[in-house]
Amino acid sequence: MSDTPNLRQAALDYHAFPKPGKLEIRATKPMANGRDLARAYSPGVAEACLEIKADPATAATYTTRGNLVGVVSNGTAVLGLGNIGALASKPVMEGKAVLFKKFANIDCFDIEVDESDPEKLADIVCALGPTFGAINLEDIKAPDCFVVERLCRERMNIPVFHDDQHGTAIVVGAAVKNALHVSGKNFEDIKIVSTGGGAAGIACLNMLLKLGVKRENVWLCDIHGLVYEGREVDMNPIKSEYAQKTDLRTLDDVIPDADLFLGLSGPGVLTPEMVGKMAKRPIIFALANPTPEILPDLARAVAPDAIIATGRSDFPNQVNNVLCFPFIFRGALDVGATTINDEMQLACIDGIAALARATTSAEAAAAYQGEQMNFGPDYLIPKPFDPRLIGVVSSAVAKAAMETGVATRPLDDLVAYKRKLDGSVFKSALLMRPVFEAARASPRRLVFAEGEDERVLRAAQAIIEETVESPILIGRPEVIQRRIESAGLNLRLGDNVDLVNPENDPRYRDYWETYHKLMCRRGVSPDIAKAVMRTNTTAIGAVMVHRGEADSLICGTFGEFGWHLNYVTQVLGRDGFRPHGALSLMILEDGPLFIADTQVHLHPNPEQIAEIARGAARHVRRFGIEPKIAFCSQSQFGNQGEGTGGRLRAAIRLLDDQEVDFCYEGEMNIDTALDHDLRERLLPGNRMQGAANVLIFAHADAASGVRNILKMKGGGLEVGPILMGMGNRAHIVSPSITARGLLNVGAIAGTPVAHYG
After folding, report:
1. Residues annotated catalytic, as ranges
2. Which pTM value belongs to this model?
3. Is 756's pLDDT higher than 60?
4. Which of 199, 352, 593, 723 is most buried, most CB within 10 Å of its CB?
5. DSSP conformation letters of 631-695
């Protein structure tokens, strides 16, 4: 239950407003006219029905079944609430469905069944088989849950997964695997003492045996004490498998020298005195909710070196099933698995464990600001909001399903599948693919002016992992090193990342003399040049590019665009290079949309507008997209003499004379640019087909305003801004940019000048 009345009311309001509940159903196809109705229902729907009758496997093509999970419960063992009944369990099952959608884009129906007989419940679930691609059993009490799952798995040819058992077991398995890695112990050597003989507890022990633990080293206790041979109280065949032949009877009797305590029972079960009897560097998984078997501070008071996990989010190492179930179902559904077997579960464990040992993602760090997330005693498993989970875990599960012969729709290319999964959470991933491929073809040196910014550090880490580029950081080494360690990054100054210390660098004299030579007839004295090269990291980065010590500068994580542009132009605006405009790529739900000029020219003249269009066309093609450029204004095809229309019309005439190789049209309103039919009504036979994908404005306020509205209200993800006209030697980002955004700009900057303009 919630800790305070305020939290309780907030939770109730969350469920009640603005609509009751947490789910709704939306159509995936248009239903705008009679033609749509005829295809969606009678008579067109008959064609899909006949195809499925002829080949049942086509249900995955013509219906949602291949991406639909049923969450089924009878409400007999709900969270820490116990047997509250099917109806009262509905908020939990709706929540489970929401998690499926949020983390793995799996559609889900929650089904609450008022049936306590396990065999009858299994009959009901099996009868629902034609509806679903998989079944998630939830919150069914033990031992009934074992019966229901066994019967359903025997009779249904789709995955049936009791998450309370196997989801918990998988996450516990991953956490124990990494805890043993940290403590230097092995599965086959450890002694385990477990409390809780329910579904989750037994499943966790079964999983640990599969990982190498010896059955004779497992001591299971429940509310009645140790499970031993000959005990008759509260026993069942599954619990009896862990019965020990011994005279010991209590948890206190068996806890001495235990390497791992696994608690899935209740509060206060493990006392500090018991912890003191455990082996050196004990591993304590106190997973009871909301109050664990022992609080971490009590355990550490006795064993400071203890490695501790709980089921709570306010302590490190939360064992949370959401790390598992969305992704194991995603992989199983995508290959049409007939079951979720041991190999798929072990692959899930390996994926989760490996991800925790890898560098923490920037997105997870942003979601959990202030938390330490370097692999070690307090970070054994990744966070649920780590976007890499779906790609790593689901592809591992799919691979295991194919290798074990349970996949009815095996994938041809696992690498492409993982890339697609990553693209489902990283909006920019698929669109940026050709840019990253070009960047990998030629190693380049990227200098980051704001090298002390954590976003920059995380981007540098990702650049090292995902490209062949070499990051250079400008900043104070002690500050950068401290932040690298705090973020748990694998950046080594002077090794895989270079450093320029503005306070003390051996190249300082070379830099200020270079800057003075460039600026001496613009009022910059030697003293001013010295001061700039000590304090202005953008100018330092630009000088490095000018001197050939870096190939491209990335700056702007703080400060105003024009301020950075001034120094970039001073140093690098030579030999035909000058800023033409700033181009932003907005990734929207229905595809990409480019916008220019958002930054460089406040009121561009016709020549500048034409130049912006030519630059935009070149850059758009870098993403594998053929540009269709619309010049946008309040004026529509010459109907207004005032405003920006005149300058846009003059720019169009310039492009007409130049015979450029891209499609453009205008001037027109934004809706006209994006609506082919509307444009045809206003100007039949115009030169553009379909919707424009590049919008160019003759006023920076308009361009920037559209960009920001799409970003803040339209759910658009911005890539850029891309500084056009500088030969890819500098890019100025916005202060709101994320680490992923910096990685994308780094990939753009990583393309050689020959590819650019």
Report:
1. 96
2. 0.73
3. no
4. 723
5. EE-SS-TT--SSTTHHHHHHHHHHHHHHT-SSEEEEEE-HHHHH-HHHHHHHSTT-S--S--SEE
